[in-house]
Structures are given as C-alpha cells and as structure tokens.
Specification:
With 467 residues, the chain is mostly helical. The chain has helices spanning 6-13, 16-46, 50-87, 91-126, 131-146, 148-163, 168-190, 200-222, 240-272, 276-312, 316-343, 345-349, 356-369, 373-389, 393-415, 420-443, 457-464. It is 81% helix and 0% strand. This is MATE family efflux transporter.
C-alpha cells in the first residue's frame, strides 16, 4: 500500500478555502514578478528610441501567445496529469510524466523557433511593421525565438512542480530571476566596461539568460532529494498514453488561449472603425483585462492541483466543492477590480496617456465592461478547475461562444448604426456568456458525463459513483 505524501494529503484533506489561499499567495507573487520582468525590459528598450519600442511591440503578442500556451494551456495539462496520477497513487506514472513533459516542451519550443525564425519578418510586416521598426522587430524576434525551447522548458518544469502541490519553488525561482534581470537588462542593452552594447538584442538575451538559469534551477530541484517526484531520464520508456494524457488537455487549452486573444483582436478591429483614439482607448483599457488573467492564474494553478488530486483519488464531491469555492474567490477579486475601474476609469487610463479622445473611449469601455469582469474571473478559474478534472470541452465551448457574441454583436451594433458604447456592450455580453456557459455545464455534470439541468449535487454524485 502506497504511503500518501504530506503534500498530497494536504490537497485531499485540508480545509479547502484556507489551503487555496495559502497556495495561491506564491503564485500571485510569480505573476507579479513575471509582469515586472516584461515592464523592466520594455522600460530599458524604450530608451533606445521609438523604432526599438515599436519593434518590440510587434513581437510582444507572439511572445504572449507562447507564454500563455506553454504556461497556461500545456502547463495546465502537465500539472493536471501529474496531480491526477499522484491522487490515484500512480507514483511511477507521475515520475514518468516528467520526461514526457520535457519531450513535449522541446517539440513545441522547436516548432515556435522554426515558425518565427523563418516567417517572422513576413508576419511583422503584415502587422504593420516597416523600415527601422520592422528591422528592430526581426532582430528582437530572432533572439527570443532562437531560445523558445528554454521558455517552454522553464514553464513545463514549473508546471510539473505545481502539479505536486508545491507552488513555492517556482515562485522563488521566478522572483530571484526577475531581481537578476534588473541590472542584467541595461548591462546587455547599453553595455558597460568590457561588455559591449547589444541594443535591442541585449534585452532579448537577458530574457533568455533568465529562462536558462531558471530552467537549471527547477531541474536541480526536481532531481534533488527534496522533490516529491523522482524522475529518471535513463530508465523511462516513452508511452503514447502519457503523452495523450497531457496533450488532450493542453491542445484543447491552446484553442481556448487562441480564442481569448482573438476576442481582443476582434474588439480592437471594431474599435478601429471609430478612429485611432478609439483604438488607443480600448487598447489601454483592455490592458486591465489582460492583468486579470495572471491574477486568476495565481488562484487557478493550485486549483488545478487540488481538483486533479481529488479526482484521481475518487473524491469527486471535494473536487466540486473546491471548484465552487475557487469560483467564488475569483468572482469577488475580479468583480471588485471591475467595479473600481468602472467607478474611477481615469485612475487607470491616465497612467498610459492624457489624450482626451483616448480617455473618453477607454472610459466607455471600462464603464460598459468593468462591472461584468466577475463573469470573466469565474470563467477563467473554472477553466483551470476543468484542467484539473481533465475535462476541457465546455470551457473551450464557452470561450468560443464569447468570441462569437463579441464579434457578431459588435458587428451588428455598427451595422445598425450603433456607436462605440454598443460595441463595448457586446464585449461585456460575451464575458457573461463565457462565465455562464462553463458554470452551467459543470453544475449540470459535464465532468462526469452527459449534461442535464437542473442537476443537484447529491443527484450528480449518485450518478458518478461506481456501482
């Protein structure tokens, strides 16, 4: 009989709310630190001039797509698979999943490298880059995506450790790395003493060094006596079943990630019909929506581990209770931020500019959509819980429904003579649909078979219990 590790027992037996909050704290710190890393690099690259900053801005959405896919989508699949294996007492499978996660990371990292090294210039030109800004984008992109495998390895190893319920080690590695970036970025960008000035390439190189050292630190922990997992690269045979367990969650999650970014892109395009100030106002206001993603991820990552472990152990009722407690926490956090933004929109918008037309457009967005941010928070945290359960069909369906409502509703608003406010109302309606679809599906039993409403918890549990 396998002895349950204390960390696994914590996920299976400790009070849910207090445990989620305690595990979420280091994750939130990680997200703040990673956001700080991007701001640090942007700040110093901005000192090189407008062309360098514009070039970096062209590459940023692709870097974010890689980050969200590796850390959130595929990372969630990795953490979920390991948590469910540990919860079911399959220690050998949990150990073997580490190697499978590394192989997946190397494969996707190589794919990103080839795609952007070969097609980056064409892509950034299609996005509007030209002249010096396009050249800056290509230079920065070549350096960053030459090391794409480091980004994937770092995020995948962090997901492996989070899958065991350990949120502290990835947090510590990330925070220490960001502290090191503060002097490293300007050193490589501007040079000093024997170190030559590398310009925008120096910013990319500093970022890759951060991921390299972080990857080595995470690997050193995993292969140390302190790690719950005992991976071996020598004696493990690659098995399709273990690859499938990760990929069936990670690939579906990637679709959801793409839909999220498409929703922002469609809204930007619709706002563009009202002029550059509308684009600037929407883009500035929507940065707050992007900020909600890492904040909810801080809560969602431990929820993946807890739900996955409970599902693996057959504790379905506890998995559902943890899910709804996490949803309540996420709603409270994101709704408070949205209401504050709606009440005081210029407190956020004025951080990025003072143009009156931009401020007016951004204010319209925050007043229309901000009060509905709670639905966005619920949708995101239920997406993470569904990763833990290994059931992502309805979260993806909800995100696609959000995209459809926002895009079609915004287009109809313009076609029927509506203004910018009506376009933003459609974006808010999309968030409501996103949250309601996922919550209703889980409440109706989507994790355990056919969906049917209404479905009380007791009835649902009777349906899923064996025998």
């Amino acid at each position: 009989m396998n002895t349950i590790d204390p960390r696994t027992r914590l996920l299976l037996e400790a009070p849910i709310g207090a445990t989620l909050l305690r595990l979420a704290a280091p994750n939130v710190l990680v997200m703040v630190a990673q956001a700080a890393a991007g701001l640090i690099e942007t700040y110093f690259v901005g000192k090189l001039g407008t062309d360098a900053l514009a070039g970096m801005a062209l590459v940023f959405p692709i870097v974010m797509l890689m980050q969200m896919t590796s850390a959130g989508a595929m990372g969630g699949g990795i953490a979920s698979s390991i948590a469910r294996a540990l919860g079911a007492g399959r220690r050998d499978d949990a150990d073997a999943l580490v190697l499978h996660a590394i192989v997946i990371a190397l494969g996707f990292g190589l794919a990103f490298s080839l795609a952007l090294l070969l097609g980056g210039r064409w892509l950034y030109a299609q996005m509007g880059g030209s002249g010096a800004s396009l050249q800056a984008a290509v230079t920065y992109s070549h350096w960053v995506f030459a090391g794409a495998m480091l980004v994937w390895l770092f995020n995948s190893l962090a997901a492996v450790i989070r899958g065991t319920g350990n949120m502290t080690v990835p947090a510590n590695v990330t925070v220490v790395g960001v502290i090191a970036l503060v002097p490293l970025s300007p050193l490589l960008i501007f040079g000093w003493g024997p170190v030559p000035a590398l310009g925008i390439a120096g910013g990319a190189l500093a970022l890759l060094l951060y991921y390299l050292v972080g990857t080595l630190a995470l690997a050193a922990y995993l292969w140390s006596d302190r790690s719950l997992l005992k991976p071996s690269l020598a004696n493990v045979k690659l098995r399709w079943l273990l690859f499938r367990d990760i990929l069936r969650i990670g690939l579906i999650g990637a679709i959801s990630t793409l839909a999220t970014n498409l929703s922002i892109g469609v809204a930007t395009s619709l706002a563009g019909g009202f002029g550059p100030a509308a684009i600037a106002g929407y883009g500035t206001a929507a940065r707050l929506e992007y900020l909600l993603v890492p904040l909810v991820f801080g809560l969602g990552a431990p929820l993946v581990a807890m739900v996955g472990t409970c599902m693996g152990a057959g504790q379905h009722e506890r998995a559902l209770r943890a899910t709804w407690i996490g949803a309540a926490m996420a709603f409270t956090l994101t709704e408070a931020i949205g209401l504050a933004a709606a009440a005081f929109p210029r407190a956020w918008l004025s951080l990025f500019g003072t143009d009156p037309a931009m401020l007016e457009a951004g204010t319209l967005y925050l007043r229309a959509v901000g009060p509905l941010y709670g639905f966005f928070g619920v949708a995101l945290v239920l997406y993470f819980a569904s990763q833990g359960a290994g059931r992502l069909l309805w979260p993806v369906a909800g995100n696609i429904a959000r995209l459809a409502v926002a895009a079609i509703g915004g287009w109809l608003a313009i076609r029927w003579g509506g203004g910018l406010m009506q376009v933003f109302v459609a974006q808010g309606a999309g968030l409501v649909v996103y949250g309601v679809v996922i919550a209703a599906a889980i409440a109706g039993g989507a994790w355990f078979g056919r969906v049917g409403w209404p479905c009380r918890t007791a009835t649902l549990l009777r349906r899923i219990q064996p025998g």
